[in-house]
Amino acid sequence: MYSKWVAGNLGGESETILGKWLISRGHRDQVVIATKVGNDMGVKGKGLSRKHIQEAVEDSLQRLQTDYIDLYQSHIDDENTPLEETLETYAELIRQGKVRAIGASNYSAERLLQALEISLKHGYPRYESLQPRYNLYDRDGYEQDLQQISQEHSIGVISYSSLCSGFLSGKYRSEKDLSISLRGSSVKRYLGALQK
Predict the structure, then answer these.
(1) 130 close to 109: Cβ distance less than 8 angstroms
(2) What is the pTM of this model?
C-alpha cells in the first residue's frame, strides 16, 4: 500500500520496482523478500480474510516477479476476521510454497498471544516475527508486553518507524517543516518533545 497516497499510484509500486530489480540481477535465492497484506489497497480492499489474502498474495507475487515470499506479514490486525481463518489461509499458502514464513505487524499483546495459541492448537504456522512501532520516543507499546511475549516465544522483532517518521533525523523542527513531506502530518505529535 506504500506510495498509494501519491497521485497516480495504486499501491504496490515498491513491489514492482523490486521485482524488476530481482529479475535484472537474477539472484532471487540470495535475497529475503518480506512484504505485507491487510492494509487498505483502495479498490483491492483490505483485511485478513481468506479471500483478500489469497488475492493479495497473487498480486504481490506478480509484482515481485517471483514464485514465493520469504516473510508474509499481517500488516494490521483485522478483528473482523477470525484469527483461525487468517492462520489457516497462511497454512495453505505455505503448503503451496507461495510463502515461507509469516509475521505480525501492529498486533496487541492480547491478539498476538491468541494467534500463537490458535496456531499451536490447530497446527497452523505461527507468527515468527513481530513488527511494532519502536524507537527512542515510542517505546511503551513494545516494552510493556510485546517484548516479553517475543522473548518467551522466540519471535523475531523488526521495528518500524525507527526515526519517528523522520522526526529523530532532525528534519522537522517546527510546524513549518511539516510541509516538507507528505508524511509530515504524522510527525506533528512529536514536536512537543522539542519544547521539553
Answers:
(1) no
(2) 0.88
The kind and range of the H/E element at 138 are none
Q: What is the phi-psi region of residue 26: left when phi exceeds 0, alpha when psi lies from -120 to 50, beta otherwise?
A: left
Q: Quick one: which of 69, 157, 58, 152 has its CA closest to 107?
A: 157
Look up residue 3 and give its amino acid. Answer: S
Q: Which three cell numbers stand for residue 116?
A: 500463537
- Kindly report the number of other CB atoms within 10 A of residue 19's CB atom: 19
pLDDT in tens, 41-80: 766 778 999 999 999 999 999 999 999 999 999 999 999 9
Do residues 127 and 71 lie in contact, with contact meaning Cβ atoms separated by under 8 Å?
no
Residue with cell 512501532: 133
Which residue shows C-alpha cell 477470525?
82
Q: How far is CA 99 from the centre of its chain?
A: 15
Is-contact 50 35, C-beta < 8 A?
no
